[in-house]
Amino acid sequence: MGIVIRQYRSEDAVQAARIWNQVVDDGVAFPQEEGLGADEADAFFTSQSYCAVAEDDETGHVVGLYILHPNNVGRCGHICNASYAVSRDMRGRHIGERLVLDCLAKAKEIGFRILQFNAVVASNVHALHLYERLGFVRLGTVPGGYRLDDGSYEDIVLFYHTL
Known about the structure:
Helix content is 29%, strand content 36%. Helix 1 (13-26) crosses helix 2 (38-46). The chain has four helices and seven strands. The longest helix is centred in the middle third of the chain and has 16 residues, at 95-110. The chain has helices spanning 13-26, 38-46, 95-110, 125-133; strands at 3-7, 50-56, 62-70, 79-86, 114-121, 137-147, 153-162. The two termini are 30 Å apart. It is of the alpha+beta class. The protein has one domain (3-117): Aminopeptidase (3-Layer(aba) Sandwich). Residues 3-160 form the N-acetyltransferase domain. This is GCN5 family acetyltransferase. Keywords: Transferase. Pfam families: Acetyltransf_1.
């Protein structure tokens, strides 16, 4: 199996929504509480500055994705933000790393200068280690910044990477 990272297309909506919704349903990474239907997903993914999917080049199945968009506007519009999702059955195969690396290159190509993560949940140790290994700088921690499904709160970590 080879993984190809390519730009999202509308025909990816059903598969991309399934993966996105898995992360939302897990309740330990994304801020969203409701999943996306195929039409909502297509509108959401196409509204981003860029959206990419990781595709299994043998089966054509989408196994991961990322969205890239401004983190702010105006004088801070050069800072972008991104979110990543990998299908549950494909985690642990470094697909997330490939998505992050592609995102860093695409963000720079688009003209962003900094990629900032506002809310990496502290228990997401795989993401924390990946970002640190890829040279992201830890800005700090927001105590209790993320509400888990059980109603408890967990810290979030902020990161940035200069492009």
